[in-house]
Amino acid sequence: MPDETLITKKKSAPFILLQFASCIFVTFLLSTFILLNLVPAAPQLSLNANKNRNACPAYGCISSPIDNQTVILSSELYSTTSCQLGCLFTRQGPSHSVNQDRSFLIRPFLTKQQAAFAIKEESFLVAILDGHGVLGHEVAEYARTELPGIVADKLNARQCCQSDDWIQQQLKDAFAELQKKVPVHSGQRGGCTASVTLRIGEKLYFANAGDGRTILVYGKPNATVLYHTRFDKPHLPDERVRIESSGGRIHTPPQNPAMSRVIVFSKAANETIGLAMSRSIGDSEWKEIGVTAEPIVDVVPIESLERQFIVAASDGLWDLRRIEFLARQLTNNLYETGLDKSLPEKLPLFVDRIAPTKGYQDDISVVIVPL
Ligand SMILES: *[C@@H]1O[C@H](CO)[C@@H](O)[C@H](O)[C@H]1NC(C)=O
Ligand SMILES: *[C@@H]1O[C@H](CO)[C@@H](O)[C@H](O)[C@H]1NC(C)=O
Ligand SMILES: *[C@@H]1O[C@H](CO)[C@@H](O)[C@H](O)[C@H]1NC(C)=O
């Protein structure tokens, strides 16, 4: 909305100060309200990963798995072993010295864009962050801790309920700010993908940079993939144009274009190295030649809540099978009769079956979020 932006810019300094002061006051009131009202009501939500609820930021409690661990998010209406609100799992690649995958799920994710009357659990923020390069895990870890707050700040900049365009722009701005603040040392020697989904009421906003992926599945009986984010690879026509016009060089194996790389001589590594994607967080030496942190953001209205779920996973999972196959397997194995109560135990077994540790070396993280 260009008009409103213009008006905002024209405001006088004292007015902005006044606005700022009242904003702080409202935030203070709001946090007092949250402290007084939400914390004593803790049994409402059982967030296994966050024992210390006082530590949760105003936008919600962050759940994040560590190696070989399934994290379960459940509401009190359902047994704590079901994945009513979501399930996260991560597994370190057997030959890796560190797991470079990070993920988080915040549900509810409370911002000003959530209408006052809405059910809290109708909001969430979920992300898969897959690190690469020597210090990729540092970039992914940095993104895990910083992104939720940055997104919340952007969405809190205006009152409810802004247009899709505005919300899409906030997600792009959040990625840009994240990129700007990546610690220099880590950003020179690594980067991470970011596949982020924001739910506000009846809409899903998918923001994707890199070759992580999020899909929206309609489960039984058809196991239909309703939406999927794109793998951002350098050989794709729009990506190639941007990178080559910025002076970047792309290597595309003729037999397998999906293995394309953006080639750069890295001063930090003192060698020529390739990046297997055209968008990412970090990777500062590639940013100068057209690799961008800007995500592609799509808005998908939720047509029906029934039997729909989101799967966000690192490329470790998607590399191995077609997404339709995975959607069918997940539907048949984990959503047999509506929501499968044993999903938390089944999820690691599912990953082991798709990608046996014996043969498969990459880190794998999966997050499943029923709508
Ligand atoms: C995770 O599980 C695999 C196999 O199940 C095992 O080899 C590995 O040591 C485990 N890692 C951790 C950190 O527990
Ligand atoms: C879904 O499956 C049902 C029964 O198997 C079938 O009748 C229906 O046409 C399918 N719908 C779509 C969209 O594939
Ligand atoms: C970079 O690598 C070259 C050879 O690969 C070597 O001769 C040179 O000393 C290296 N420079 C630094 C700063 O390590």
TrEMBL record:
Q: What is this protein called?
A: PPM-type phosphatase domain-containing protein
Q: Which InterPro entries match?
A: PP2C, PPM-type-like_dom_sf, PPM-type_phosphatase-like_dom
Report the source organism. Fistulifera solaris (Oleaginous diatom)
Q: Does the keyword Zinc-finger apply?
A: no
Q: Which UniProt keywords apply?
A: Membrane, Transmembrane, Transmembrane helix
Q: Top-down, what is the taxonomic lineage of the species of origin? A: Eukaryota, Sar, Stramenopiles, Ochrophyta, Bacillariophyta
Domain (PPM-type phosphatase): residue spans on this chain? 85-371
> Does Transmembrane count among this protein's keywords?
yes
Regions annotated as coiled coil: none
Bilayer-spanning residue ranges? 12-36
